[in-house]
C-alpha cells in the first residue's frame, strides 16, 4: 500500500452512530472479514463494526484469508483492491464458485469506473472509494450480510426439500410428477394402470412426506426441485389443461 493510501486511514472515523439495526447488526453470530494490508485501517474498521455489535476478523493478505478455516455463519468480506500477492479482484474470481457466494464490499483509494464496473458485474455488493463515510460502509455491510443470510437460508431450504423428495418411493415420485400436472386420481390411475384407491394412498403418503398442505404448494416444491416433466401419458390428456397454478 502506498504512502498516499496509508494517509487515508484517519478518514475512517470511529464514533457513536445513529444506526437502525437489522438482524445483521443485532449481536447475532454474523461476522465481517476484512482484508487490508494497512493494520491501522483494519483496526479502525474493526472498531467501527464493533460499535454496531458486529464481530470482525482482519487479514493482511488474500492468501491468509484463504488459508484460514472460517465459521459457517452469515458473513461478508470487506476487501481492499490493492493487496500484496493476490489482489482483491483476483480473490473475487477465486471465490466466485463458493457456495453460498461470498458477499464482497470493495474499498479502495485507487478505484476507477472500469474497476468498479468489473467488481459489481462479478457480484460485489458495493465499491467504496476511500475516504468513505462510516455510514456508507455500515449500510453496505448490512446489505451484504442480509444477502448472505438469505442465501444460506435458501440453501438450507433447498437441501431439506431435496431430502424430503429423496424419501419418496419410486412409485410416489411417479404419482407426484402426475399430481403436479393437475390430473385427478382416476386419470393418474389410468396412466399408471393402477387402481384409484392405490393412487389415492400414494398421493396421501407423498403429500405427508413432502409436508405439502395443498397441490399448489406441491407444484411450487416441484418447481423448486427443477423436476423433469413426466413421460408421455398412456392416455392423451393435455397436460396444459390440468396444470395447477401456484399463484
Rough shape?
Answer: elongated
Physical arrangement of strands within the biggest beta sheet: 2-1-3-4-5
Output mean pLDDT: 86
* Total strand segments: 5
Indicate the radius of gyration in whole angstroms. Answer: 26 Å
What is the N-to-C order of secondary-structure elements (H for helix, E for strand)?
A: HEHEHEHEHEHHHHHH
CATH architecture of the largest domain: 3-Layer(aba) Sandwich
How many domains? The number is: 2
CATH superfamily of the largest domain: Response regulator
CATH class wording of the largest domain: Alpha Beta
State the secondary-structure class. Answer: alpha/beta
Q: Which residue ranges are poorly predicted, with pLDDT under 50 across at least 5 consecutive positions?
A: 1-11, 13-24, 236-247
Helix content: 40-55%
What is the fold named in CATH at topology level of the largest domain? Rossmann fold
User: Cα distance, first to last residue?
Assistant: 54 Å
Discrete helix count: 11
For the report, how would you describe the main beta sheet? 5 strands, parallel
Percent strand equals 5-15%
Describe the structure concisely for a colleague.
With about 250 residues, the protein is an alpha/beta fold.
Walkthrough of the structure:
With 247 residues, this protein is α/β, with parallel strands linked by helices. It folds into two domains: 3-157, Rossmann fold (3-Layer(aba) Sandwich), CATH 3.40.50.2300; 167-242, Winged helix-like DNA-binding domain superfamily/Winged helix DNA-binding domain (Arc Repressor Mutant, subunit A, Orthogonal Bundle), CATH 1.10.10. Helices cover 48% and strands 10% of the residues. The chain is built from eleven helices and five strands. It has helices at 3-6, 39-50, 62-66, 88-94, 113-121, 134-166, 170-179, 185-192, 196-210, 215-225, 239-242, and strands spanning 31-35, 55-59, 75-80, 104-108, 126-129. A five-stranded parallel beta sheet has the order 2-1-3-4-5, with helices on both faces. Helix 7 crosses helix 9 and helix 8 packs across helix 9. The radius of gyration is 26 Å and the shape is elongated. The protein starts with a helix and ends in a 5-residue tail after the last helix.
Amino acid at each position: 500500500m502506498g504512502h498516499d493510501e496509508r494517509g487515508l486511514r484517519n478518514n475512517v472515523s470511529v464514533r457513536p452512530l445513529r444506526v437502525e439495526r437489522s438482524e445483521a447488526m443485532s449481536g447475532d453470530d454474523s461476522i465481517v472479514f476484512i482484508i487490508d494490508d494497512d493494520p491501522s485501517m483494519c483496526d479502525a474498521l474493526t472498531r467501527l463494526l464493533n460499535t454496531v455489535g458486529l464481530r470482525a476478523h482482519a487479514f493482511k493478505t488474500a492468501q491468509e484469508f484463504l488459508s484460514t478455516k472460517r465459521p459457517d455463519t452469515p458473513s461478508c468480506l470487506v476487501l481492499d483492491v490493492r493487496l500484496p500477492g493476490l489482489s482483491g479482484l483476483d480473490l473475487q474470481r477465486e471465490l466466485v464458485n463458493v457456495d453460498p457466494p461470498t458477499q464482497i464490499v470493495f474499498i479502495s483509494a485507487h478505484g476507477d469506473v472500469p474497476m468498479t464496473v468489473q467488481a459489481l458485474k462479478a457480484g460485489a455488493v458495493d465499491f467504496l472509494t476511500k475516504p468513505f463515510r462510516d455510514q456508507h460502509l455500515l449500510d453496505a455491510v448490512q446489505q451484504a450480510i442480509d444477502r448472505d443470510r438469505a442465501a444460506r437460508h435458501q440453501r438450507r431450504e433447498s437441501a431439506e426439500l431435496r431430502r424430503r423428495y429423496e424419501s419418496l418411493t419410486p412409485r410416489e415420485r411417479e404419482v407426484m410428477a402426475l399430481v403436479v400436472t393437475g390430473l385427478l386420481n382416476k386419470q393418474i390411475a389410468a396412466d399408471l394402470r393402477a387402481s384409484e384407491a392405490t393412487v389415492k394412498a400414494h398421493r396421501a403418503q407423498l403429500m405427508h412426506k413432502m409436508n405439502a398442505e395443498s397441490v399448489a404448494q406441491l407444484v411450487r416444491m416441484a418447481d423448486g426441485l427443477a423436476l423433469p416433466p413426466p413421460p408421455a401419458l398412456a392416455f392423451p390428456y393435455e397436460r396444459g389443461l390440468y396444470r395447477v397454478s401456484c399463484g
